[in-house]
Amino acid sequence: MALANPDLTGSTAFITGTTRGIGKQLALALADHGCNVVSTGKTTDDDETELAGSIEQTAREVRERGAEAIALELDLRDEDRVEAIVDEAIDQFGEIDIVINNASAIQLANVADLPADRFDLLTDVNVRGSHLVAHAFADHLADQEEAWLLSNSPPITTDRSPGKAPYAWSKLGMSFIALSLAEELKSDGVGCNTFWPVTTIDTRASRYFGLGTEDDWRTPEIVSDAVLEILARDPAECTGNSFYDETLLREAGVTDFSEYNVTEGDPAPMSARMFDPAFEREA
C-alpha cells in the first residue's frame, strides 16, 4: 500500500469551514504536503465560545507545518463577504489553485417538522454558499495551469430522502453545482469533483446530532487521505466524478481501514446510506 504523496509546494488552497472537524483536517493534511491555506469559517479567536477551535488556530497549526496561511472570517450567507475574501485571498497569494467547499449546515428532520428559517439556513449555507464560492473563483481557476474545485458532498443517487429531505436537497445541490462546473470548466482543465465518506465521521456535528455512536465513526483522516488521492491526479483528466473515500483508498491499495476507526470494529456505511439506502461496500 502506498498512499498518494502529492507535492503541493507552491499551491494554495481556499477551504471553507476549517475551524474544526473535516475542514481543519483537510487544511493540516494539505499543509503537510506543502500547500498554503486560506482558513475560513465563522469561529474566530475573539468569539466567546466553549467550542474548541478557530480559523486562526487552524492557520497557526498550518504555519507550524511550514506552509503559509491566513485566516479570514466568513459567513457563506453573505455574498459581499464571499466576494471580498476571495479577492483578498488572491491578492495575498497571487494564485489559488485548490478550492474546497467543505462547510455546511446540518439538520435532519421531516418536512413537517422543519420550519422555514431552518430550511433557509440549509439552503443558504450549503447550496447557495457553494455557488457563491464557485462563482467567485470560476474565472480565476480557469486561468490556472492546474486547478481544482472539490465539494464535500455525496453522489447524486436518489430523488427522495424521507426524514431528511431538506438537508439532503442542500447537500445534493452542492454536488450538482460541482459536477455541472466540471462540464463548464472542462476545456480549461479544472478538476471539479465531489468526495464523501462511506461511514459517519467523528466531528462535533456527528456528536451533537447523535449520528450514531463512536462504534459507527471514523476519524477525519480518512477523508483527508482520500482528498490527497484526488489531488495527486491530473485535474484535466480527473473531473466530473463523485468519489467515496473508501473507493479512492482501495484504489491506492488500502485493504485494512482499522487505523481510521474511532473504536475497534467495522463501522457500517451510515453516511453513504444516508443518501443511497441500497449502498453496499465493494467486495
Q: Strand order, main sheet: write it out.
A: 3-2-1-4-5-6-9
Helix residue percentage: 25-40%
Question: Count of DSSP helices?
Answer: 9
Which term fits the overall shape?
globular
Distance between the termini: 18 Å
Strand content: 5-15%
Main β-sheet description: 7 strands, parallel
Count of individual beta strands: 9
Radius of gyration computed on alpha carbons: 18 Å
Give the overall pLDDT as a whole number: 95
Question: What's the order of the H and E elements?
Answer: EHEHEHEHEHEEHEHEHH
SS content category: alpha/beta
List low-pLDDT spans.
Answer: none
Descriptive account of the structure:
By secondary structure, the chain is an alpha/beta fold. It has helices spanning 21-32, 55-64, 79-93, 116-142, 165-184, 204-208, 221-231, 245-251, 270-275, and strands at residues 12-16, 36-41, 69-73, 98-101, 147-152, 190-196, 200-201, 217-218, 242-244. Helix 1 packs parallel to helix 2 and helix 4 (116-142) runs parallel beside helix 5. The radius of gyration is 18 Å and the shape is globular. The protein is built from nine helices and nine strands.
Structure summary:
This protein has 283 residues and is an alpha/beta fold. 40% of the residues lie in helices and 14% in strands.
List key phrases describing it.
14% strand, globular, seven-stranded parallel β-sheet, 283 residues, two-stranded parallel sheet, alpha/beta
Topology:
Layout: E1 12-16, H1 21-32, E2 36-41, H2 55-64, E3 69-73, H3 79-93, E4 98-101, H4 116-142, E5 147-152, H5 165-184, E6 190-196, E7 200-201, H6 204-208, E8 217-218, H7 221-231, E9 242-244, H8 245-251, H9 270-275
Parallel strand pairs: 1-2, 1-4, 2-3, 4-5, 5-6, 6-9, 7-8
Helix pairs in contact: 1-2, 1-7, 3-4, 4-5, 7-8
